[in-house]
Specification:
The protein is an alpha/beta fold. The chain is built from eight helices and ten strands.
């Protein structure tokens, strides 16, 4: 692959409190290519979410170079809106507006970006159709299950057709069956819409299941300790998790994560 869309080089992140400095990230180097599905996995507190918040310009790094689709971030300067618009962000909790219907929640980013014409409404209708959510377009969030709420959160992030999707443990609160179903749906949408996805998770099996590559992080300070290419055929089905190759990937990745809560690895 030569078509890089994201590059982080020697990125450090130090948070300053009134009493101490907290080194959250040290010497982060990663490269993401167009239409890749890449996971970042590691124990709680290793800085996984900090990485994608830096990419989305929510926080600025202490040191290092970040390039997104040809634009290199300038220290102490806000990233241009046209670059930020390349990102869609899916949070751990969907945080839907309870007084808006499913369709209006999905369209909400379009209102922020002032894209409200019929063309964009068709995009949202197409997303609802692709995801099998059309019949719920006029439902309110209070009538939906946890899994469906997360699906709406993903569709909202996709509504303005960002080229990069940042997903911060979006299915971490769901049971294994619902998580597996949504992982498969996310892979199907990713392949249909040709986006690039960075997927944050502490679940090793999930990372292997969805990814082309996995970055493994350790903590104190947060740093990348391994990059693993996942050579499993696509499209993927749950049956792949029973294969010898999948189990070998899982054993290897688990061995690379220190200080991890083994109960979190399913």
């Amino acid at each position: 692959m030569t078509d890089s869309i994201i590059k982080m080089e020697h990125v450090d992140m130090v948070f300053h409190t009134r009493t101490q400095e907290i080194e959250a990230l040290r010497d982060i180097n990663l490269q993401i290519f167009k239409h890749e599905f890449v996971s970042i996995v590691g124990p709680s507190g290793c800085g996984k979410s900090t990485i994608i918040r830096i990419l989305d310009d929510i926080i600025q790094p202490t040191k290092g170079t970040i390039t997104v689709d040809g634009y290199t971030y300038i220290p102490n300067k806000q990233v241009p809106k046209e670059v930020i618009r390349k990102f869609g962000f899916v949070f751990q909790n969907p945080n839907l507006l309870p007084w808006m219907t499913v369709k209006k929640n999905i369209m909400f980013p379009l209102k922020i970006f002032h894209d409200k014409d019929s063309q964009w409404e068709k995009v949202v209708d197409d997303l609802l159709k692709i995801s099998g959510m059309s019949e719920y377009a006029d439902y309110y969030p209070g009538a939906l299950s946890g899994g469906m709420l997360q699906r709406v959160g993903v569709l909202r992030a996709m509504s303005y057709q960002p080229s990069i999707l940042l997903m911060d443990e979006p299915y971490g609160t769901l049971d294994n069956l619902r998580r597996e179903q949504l992982d498969m749906e996310t892979m199907r949408l990713w392949d249909t819409l040709k986006q690039t996805i960075i997927f944050i998770t502490h679940n090793v099996a999930e990372a292997i299941f969805v990814s082309d590559r996995v970055y493994v992080m350790d903590t104190q300070p947060g740093r990348i300790v391994e990059e693993v290419k996942i050579d499993l055929p696509r499209p993927r089905t749950p049956e792949v998790t029973a294969t010898k190759q999948f189990k070998e990937y899982k054993q290897y990745l688990t061995s690379k994560i220190s200080n991890v809560d083994l109960n979190a690895i399913k």
